[in-house]
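Please, structure for the following, as tokens.
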Amino acid sequence: MKKLALLLAIPLVMFAFIAERNSWRPYTLELQAKAIDELKFSADGRYLVINKYATYAGIHDIIVFEVHAHRIAKEIKGCRALFLAGDYLVGREEDERLLLPLQETTVYNLRDSGFKARKIKDFSAYGALPDGKSLLGGNAPQRSAWPPRDLMAYELIDQRTKSQATPPKPYALLPPLPEFQIPKWQSPVFIPSRNFRFLDDQKTMLIYDELPLPSSSYTSRTIFQFWDIKQKKTMFRMESSRLKIFNIATTPSGLAAWIKNGQLEIWNYQTAQRQTVFPLPLPSQGNLSINTQTSEATSFLLALSPDGTLLAGSRSPSQDIFLWDIKTRTLLRTLKGHRSQVLCLAFAPDGKSLASGSSDGSVKLWRIK
């Protein structure tokens, strides 16, 4: 009986092993692209919006991929996807002759079978209000005055007449650049700069200011602010010389994750409280350990699952993706499959899938739950 039970158990174990291995095998979308540099899921998870480099000059094409049907629903040439606002995809066209983005915003309706487009001239959109019906940005002719001090609101639909909106109206004031000094005896090499992006909760803006140090104009300090757009106040502020804006992963629930001094830190930026901190466990093979003496954060790409339980990351120039369980602080799996450096990661809204894009021109969908 024991031998019979053993003989029956062997196929079951083999079947379970093969099923488990195949469950981690990704769906691969091969695109004619120089690289995939950004991925965005729609709020309902139906579409994956892909920004791909169409030429070495940096001109983008947008691919709208229907996830469950595994088909390309729309390809938009010469345009870069900026963000998703409710049922709308907001992009900006690029001119291959000028190698510059055009100073207008294009809005595509994802609910329309033909992805009907509307152009908004002389308006550069940065984000949207939570209702998804109004864009926030600036008047393009005034963008020479950088960084901008205020946001303009452009209403996509007039709810009373269902017609196209009136011109943009003032909405919110942004914080001024922090004070800084440049030594009089030295000409400045670092010019103060400001970048920002809207977070997934569509209520918060992550502002990244790079300023020269008072002691030297050849080095800089970076200041991050999580700015409440409606309340017009800073919820959380941090200063660092290592973090970059693309190294911060956030969730709609208000969590933010980054690597600092060789450790993963997760904060609630709405309450300014640190949730957890621990060294990221990495495979012992190769040179993947985090070096606290170098700018390790700039080489790490991170994505946080919507519920804040999983963290995906890849270290330049690695082709592999690491998946960590934040609660147990363990490395769950190393996802292999890309032929070149991983450039972008994005979790699906339900947290069950992870999308990855690479400089090999492919997008992979990993089923992780």
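The chain is about 5% helix and 50% strand. The domain at 27-173 is CATH 2.130.10.120 (Methylamine Dehydrogenase; Chain H).
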